[in-house]
UniProtKB/TrEMBL annotation:
Pathway: Protein modification; peptidyl-diphthamide biosynthesis. Belongs to the DPH4 family. InterPro entries: DnaJ_domain, DPH_MB_dom, DPH_MB_sf, J_dom_sf. It comes from the Eukaryota. It is found in: Cytoplasm, Cytoskeleton. Pfam families: DnaJ, Zn_ribbon_CSL. Monomer and homooligomer. Iron binding promotes oligomerization. GO terms for cellular component: cytoskeleton. Residues 93-148 form the DPH-type MB domain. This is DnaJ homolog subfamily C member 24. It comes from Neomonachus schauinslandi (Hawaiian monk seal).
């Protein structure tokens, strides 16, 4: 399994030429097409050594992308990290809030907190274990989710 620290550094969707909303079957199709194109055995003998090296590197990246995006668990983790990175790039964190300070909603099994704009921050019970940044559903404010302990 890939180290978590490596995951957000590369855009694995871009490496496969796919959109983040692509289905796993679409990702698999793109992976299979690219892996054949860049496979070391498919390179002709008269290609310069540098080009062969680039193809091998591309082949390795494509394989790494599929290992992350082809597995439901690692894909979900990668998508959450991408989302969190996007939030970090949006602007500064408005506040730090402990999960225990948020309101529990039994109907949809989520935690929520009112934002000063009138909107709300919400996170599902499962996501609360994995995410640290939550954006307001109305404005651009972001809170950092903390856990006691």
């Amino acid at each position: 399994m890939m180290a978590v620290e490596q995951i957000p550094k590369k855009d694995w969707y871009n490496i496969l030429g796919a959109d983040p909303s692509a289905s796993v079957s679409d990702l698999k199709q793109k992976y299979q097409k690219l892996i054949l194109m860049y496979h070391p055995d498919k390179q002709s003998a008269d290609v310069p050594a540098g080009t062969v090296e680039e193809c091998i590197q591309k082949f390795i990246e494509i394989d790494q992308a599929w290992k992350i995006l082809g597995n439901e668990e690692t894909k979900k983790e990668y998508d959450l990290q991408r989302h969190e990175e996007d939030l970090r790039n949006m602007g500064p964190v408005d506040a730090q809030v402990y999960l225990e300070e948020m309101c529990w909603n039994e109907d949809d099994h989520s935690f929520s907190l009112s934002c000063r704009c009138g909107g709300k921050y919400s996170v599902s019970k499962d996501e609360a274990e994995e995410v640290t940044l939550i954006s307001c559903d109305t404005c651009s404010l972001i809170i950092e989710l903390l856990h006691y302990g």
